[in-house]
Specification:
CATH topology of the largest domain: Rossmann fold
CATH superfamily of the largest domain: P-loop containing nucleotide triphosphate hydrolases
Number of domains: 3
Radius of gyration: 26 Å
Largest sheet: 9 strands, mixed
Oligomer: single chain
Strand content: 25-35%
């Protein structure tokens, strides 16, 4: 008997009776794929028991233990920060990133630290042979015998090894190479990725084994496979950064056990990834002195204040349409701020090319970056440098007003630690700091409008 085909959207999981170019639920184009209904029923039956729960197995909310989840220290403080304090027992973590960014290296280093702390770890690789893993491990350091390696792509065989070994942590590298024999499609397909992840999720919850899965990313920067993959897992981490740059940023975009605002900063070295405990110092290394268009800003990444350099280059254009380029920040935000400066400050950017760059390869989305971009553009346009040891932060509105930002005191403290003497900030944030009675060894200058930049006395 021929299996009946069903169709579903890879973005939202919506099921359809026939193929369509656009999903009626999420309105995405070319995301509807075909799957056999018999395969889907078989996988759903294997996903859990169909029997009704006994009365002793049902609990009210007050009967559930509300103690904090037990967390395992990974031995990497930056990774602990992003995970929310460590690995939660029975969690399923998805790690994505560009090829060669360091995903496998980071997790292999984590395996080394976990094994040295007495945890049993199983590393499953579907992309590399055991010899290749050994060569990479030799560059990282000495490993103990609590780390077990498997080079396998058959999920049934991997599951048998997990049940036999009962490890504390399992690494799957990568999810796109794994396949189930009962799923009639090639490895890496939508069906295989979904069903494989569902099986690993069930094992993680039933056996309380922490599982990390590595996922390839598409050209849009998202994890390849159905969008529901990110909904199935407990935590989604993205490893960002240019593969040609030394710095890597580990960012959490979903975390059921912690904040999604934290980031971890790493530096790629010959023996693996090294933690960057003071990113501000590294990001400002090699900064030019007394150069027009160079401004230091203070941004918040979760609970961590960071200082970064914003550079602006403004020059006369030889084309009918001036060029605009933004690296490390939003291009549309840059255009908006330039329009505000033309309207409120009377600067003629329409005849100038303008380029904005956040040095160090960082991508910053903090709204407090606005005032530093405005200051850098003003400095580059006037060809006048900003005073030495000055930081700038604040959000800019369409009328040119400088609005308050969160955690202004933490930003100022970070600037004081690195020896900065002046700080241009929103006047409302300055009033809040003064009301709290803070004592800082830095000259605080509060402004209400970007027009007050020229009269700040620091140009």
């Amino acid at each position: 008997m021929k299996n009946k085909s069903v169709f579903y959207c890879t973005e939202c999981g919506n099921e359809l009776s026939k193929w369509a170019g656009q999903c009626p639920a999420c309105k995405k184009w070319n995301t509807v794929v075909e799957a056999t209904e018999s395969m889907k029923k078989a996988s759903s039956l294997k996903g859990g028991s169909q029997r009704p729960l006994k009365k002793s197995e049902r609990h009210t909310l007050s009967q559930v233990d509300s103690e904090d989840e037990r967390r395992t220290d990974t031995g990497i403080s930056e990774l602990n920060r992003v995970l929310g304090g460590g690995i939660v027992k029975g969690s399923l973590v998805l790690v994505g990133g560009d090829p060669g960014i360091g995903k496998s290296t980071l997790l292999l280093q984590m395996c080394r630290e976990l094994a040295e702390r007495g945890s049993s770890v199983l590393y499953v690789s579907g992309e590399e042979s055991l010899r290749q893993i050994k060569l990479r491990a030799d560059r990282i350091g000495q490993f103990c015998d609590r780390l077990m390696l498997i080079s396998e792509t058959d999920l049934d065989s991997i599951v048998e090894n997990i049940y036999e070994m009962k490890p504390d942590t399992v690494i799957i590298d990568s999810i796109q190479t794994m396949c189930r024999a009962d799923v009639d499609s090639a490895a890496g397909s939508i069906s295989q990725v979904r069903e494989t992840t569902q099986t690993l999720l069930r094992i993680a919850k039933e056996e309380e084994i922490s599982i990390f899965i590595i996922g390839h990313v598409t050209k849009e920067g998202t994890v390849a496979g159905p969008r529901m993959l990110e909904h199935m897992v407990d935590t989604v981490l993205y490893f960002e950064g240019d593969s040609n740059s030394l710095f890597r940023v580990l960012r959490g975009v979903k975390n059921r056990f912690g904040s999604t605002n934290e980031i971890g900063v790493f530096e790629m070295c010959k023996n693996g990834l090294r933690e960057v405990l003071n990113p501000s110092e590294h990001l400002l290394c090699g900064m030019p002195e007394n150069e027009p268009g160079s401004v230091v800003t203070a941004v918040m990444e979760g609970t961590r204040p960071m200082l970064a350099e914003v550079q602006a280059l403004v020059c006369q254009t030889s084309f009918n349409m001036p060029r605009r380029t933004a690296a490390g920040t939003d291009y549309n935000r840059m255009n908006l701020l330039m329009a505000v400066m033309e309207k409120r400050m009377g600067l003629r950017f329409s005849s100038c090319d303008a380029y904005i760059n956040v040095a160090g390869g960082m991508k910053i989305i903090d709204p407090s970056l606005d005032l530093s971009i405005v200051t850098a553009l003003y400095s580059g346009y006037k060809n006048v440098p900003l005073a030495e040891k000055t930081i700038v932060f604040g959000e800019v509105g369409l009328t040119g007003e400088v609005r308050a930002v969160s955690q202004a005191a933490a930003r100022v403290n970070e600037a004081c630690k690195l020896g900065y003497k002046n700080c241009i900030m929103p006047k409302t944030s300055l009033d809040i700091i003064k009301s709290e009675g803070g004592n800082y060894s830095i000259n605080l200058i509060g402004i209400r409008n970007i027009c007050e930049l020229s009269s700040s006395g620091l140009f």
